[in-house]
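User: Predict the full complex structure for these chains.
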Amino acid sequence: MRVTILVALVCIHAAAADAQTWNPPADSARCPSKWGAGDQRGAANHMKPDTVLRAARLIRTGQVFELGRRLEEGMPLQTTRTFELHTKRTAPLAGSNRRGSNEEIVLAEIGQVGTQFDTFAHQTIGDSLYNCFKLEEIATRNGFSKLGIENIGGLMTRGVLLDIAALKGVEMLPETYEITVADLQQALQRQQLTLQPGDAVILHTGWGRLWGKENDRYMRTNPGIDVAASEWLARQDPMLIGADTAPINVTPSPDSRLSNPVHQIALVVNGFFLLENLRLDELASQRAYEFALIVEPLKLVGATGSTVAPIAIR
Amino acid sequence: MRVTILVALVCIHAAAADAQTWNPPADSARCPSKWGAGDQRGAANHMKPDTVLRAARLIRTGQVFELGRRLEEGMPLQTTRTFELHTKRTAPLAGSNRRGSNEEIVLAEIGQVGTQFDTFAHQTIGDSLYNCFKLEEIATRNGFSKLGIENIGGLMTRGVLLDIAALKGVEMLPETYEITVADLQQALQRQQLTLQPGDAVILHTGWGRLWGKENDRYMRTNPGIDVAASEWLARQDPMLIGADTAPINVTPSPDSRLSNPVHQIALVVNGFFLLENLRLDELASQRAYEFALIVEPLKLVGATGSTVAPIAIR
Amino acid sequence: MRVTILVALVCIHAAAADAQTWNPPADSARCPSKWGAGDQRGAANHMKPDTVLRAARLIRTGQVFELGRRLEEGMPLQTTRTFELHTKRTAPLAGSNRRGSNEEIVLAEIGQVGTQFDTFAHQTIGDSLYNCFKLEEIATRNGFSKLGIENIGGLMTRGVLLDIAALKGVEMLPETYEITVADLQQALQRQQLTLQPGDAVILHTGWGRLWGKENDRYMRTNPGIDVAASEWLARQDPMLIGADTAPINVTPSPDSRLSNPVHQIALVVNGFFLLENLRLDELASQRAYEFALIVEPLKLVGATGSTVAPIAIR
Amino acid sequence: MRVTILVALVCIHAAAADAQTWNPPADSARCPSKWGAGDQRGAANHMKPDTVLRAARLIRTGQVFELGRRLEEGMPLQTTRTFELHTKRTAPLAGSNRRGSNEEIVLAEIGQVGTQFDTFAHQTIGDSLYNCFKLEEIATRNGFSKLGIENIGGLMTRGVLLDIAALKGVEMLPETYEITVADLQQALQRQQLTLQPGDAVILHTGWGRLWGKENDRYMRTNPGIDVAASEWLARQDPMLIGADTAPINVTPSPDSRLSNPVHQIALVVNGFFLLENLRLDELASQRAYEFALIVEPLKLVGATGSTVAPIAIR
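Assistant: Here is the predicted structure of the four-chain assembly.
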């Protein structure tokens, strides 16, 4: 009997421990994607004329907000990433009109620096990607043969800013603050908005204030969502989640065993996009909570993402 | 007397010859720019709430046209330009969630390859640029300190497609055909449209059919506008001129002494932008002549331009 | 009975077929290397004072032969490899002495272009490298943590040119000619030389005549050694094998199932180096068969090889 | 009278001030070079069989000293210079022999990083280079059409280490210590050596101890020669001057108006080379004062220099 109780206690403990961590779903649980076997576009499939019209209707004043960061040498970069711009010599003057030409060579992980739009080639669960494409079958030295950013196209959709910092009455959430489902719901309530399928859900943490000022701190940790909130957001069927942080996920994850589960939940499991390093101070200070979001990823064939310069218009 | 006549004939001939070439205006004739001394944004100053609203009103069906070319190794490139994408090794799996990360290093004249948006740092008349900024004062090894693309911001304006190929009853204009002022006016008439200040004027030559198929030919020569038509267009006060060719200018210029005067007329003299290597086949075949054009140049600080993925929406 | 004979014939044929192909040896058959478990330097261990003195004694006239190719845009390159040199803008004149500085940015697989020295990180048998280091344990995004070129150091040793083209009475061996063990032995005999441990064995095929003239042909196929000759050479315990071809191995291998076995025999199994794309026309025409070879690989930490500019001196 | 004295005093002072600064010689005073009009190789013309033999005779024990620094991300770099090595994905296994291939893409000012060999395209006096080649006539976007490193070839010559640190009884000279002509002469005397035309003169300051340890400090200032000592060395007709510092010149120059005059005196005026960022600790500690120096610049067509991995052998 003692043995039985011991076993029971052990089992309960184990169950409790398991309940604390998150395990990526098995392939069979997530594939094929709801968009169909072989689909490479995930939530970009939300782009239909109605989506565009819905967003266009939100353009009432013509006010444009620039959400993209400047790409320059002093910007925060993940370790091992680079951004370099080398101005080439001016070409010799041509013609009787004495025309000189300038250009530059840029060397960068141009899919993954600055304000960036991540697509499905970017992340794996083990060797498996969105819609269960296999890494070794699609990765080459010069790009991914499936799931590259060129499949996405320009996106125009309704954007909703959830100002979590304002909800908490601060300018900047604490550095490892986990945004909860309750936070998201309260923000919606406070801002009198609801989410709709195909939305771009933009989270304002205030962490963006550190960009270009305290780059190491900006990159080292950050507030954000984790498993619960991102799974809840996934159930709202968004086109993308964006934030004024680099990894979107609270860093580090409260569960120290996990590495940025939000990236997997978004890009691998549910097939929607992440939009990182946004500049949201203006949107927040001007209480622009609902707007048309337009983002145009570069058509870098086989790339895992694109640096972008998105705009919000209301 | 014979001498006199001879001299007179020579003078008339010389005058005629002079009248056939184009000389860039002197600095005093073009500076300061109409937007003001020190202005760096030129026709981007047209971006006002009204411009956005005017464009938004043209979004009636939500139909989106992708105007950007795919960026890949087989695309046409000017000599000495490059585009390379190297997929990096997948990062070792991280966390109990076995998260793998992929990214790529891109090496390219990312301001001047593929579908590209040229800004004022790109061109000079001698050592002088738009608004008479001087090359040696603003060019550095790592970007231009003035007139870089980061000054422009996202653009949303009314776009007008002038289908010159259709006007001439062909799928593709002949390779060195010069589009005249009369052609532009007849196209507007045929399409029952007028130009307005701040418009994006998009010229369909049909030359884009060669992209990815006959790259050398695509790059070697092309139909397009020259001095007269671009000066006429400049007087319509556009935000930009775009086309489905690389240099916009008919190549070679009919005046063999000139090297792409349209680039100087647009970027140096009048301060509006050029949008090159557009994909216009769909817009043309679907007779989408009037639309909202949205283009988001990357904020590459100090760059002469940006590869872009613009969309047209109607 | 007929069945028995048939089976016997089939078995004999299969055995013969197996005997014609080459299978890389099992790890246990080649590891640890003769230089010791954990050794990363292979035949570079031959570099001892005696080796240097032996080579120095061959310097009798002071005549120097340049064996390295020019690195420039028109050179033959394997597909997906690149070489670009971009001259940067001259730095603004500094000081009262008006000093201007020039430099260039070079983008290249600088370990694997032009005249190149391959080291052990370059090749695998499956996931295993020289001395049974495992790929996943030593490969990172920014270099190999073991077996990188920085472990090698400058090499100065006796060089022996085996002029196989001259042996065959031609200027250039036929394009898929396999150099046999007999060829090597006859060349040594004809040239009255013997090989010694630690030698740099340089093979003149004449194929180098195509460099810069018929680059596609240079790269597509070439004469060279294959399994038998490289295994024989391996038994002579060389420091390296070099040739005036890109892959050293006859291309394609006579056994169509194999992909460049010489690379594995040299770099993975036996731990000596390969020196490719040498310029040997002068050495051959001047009958410089024995000389001091000096090669200085760049200390690119973690790289798989280095572009080099070796010299031969006699 | 007072006025006269004042004027005299002013004149004497001005003369004294002029005597303290250095002015680069006029073109007519230095061109054509002693090697002839149109010469591009300068002191590389010292490379003759006798030079090689003279150096070879110094190889008595076969001891090799590696003088090159490791090229890796943590090394000191001048601002705006870069060194990046990106390991590419392993190529899919090829053949029945399961051959995997690895390579890396390197992005760097490969002529001007790490242990580097500067040639004449690197420096100007105004718009004029060695042998009065003019910058605008020889500089292109993809290399210099004259004076590029490909003209130099491998160099093997007598090397002489002048241990100035030991002369002064220190491990490292003070950071802005100017090495004088007297220092050089006393070092030669102390070490019982004389200089010969065509020598590689290597200066040990001890500053190299900071490499990889205090990179900012290594780059910010350093001891070294200035005008007087370099002009004296120039009169000894060397092949090159090397040191364990980045700029060779004491930094800053004692004359605050000058910017690294040694670079101009060597590369522009006198046409000999500079070999920077050498690792000299071993040579110095082992008192290897006379040796064969062998340096093999990469044949980067049109480049201003080359990263190198030189060796000294005695």
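The radius of gyration of chain B is 21 Å.
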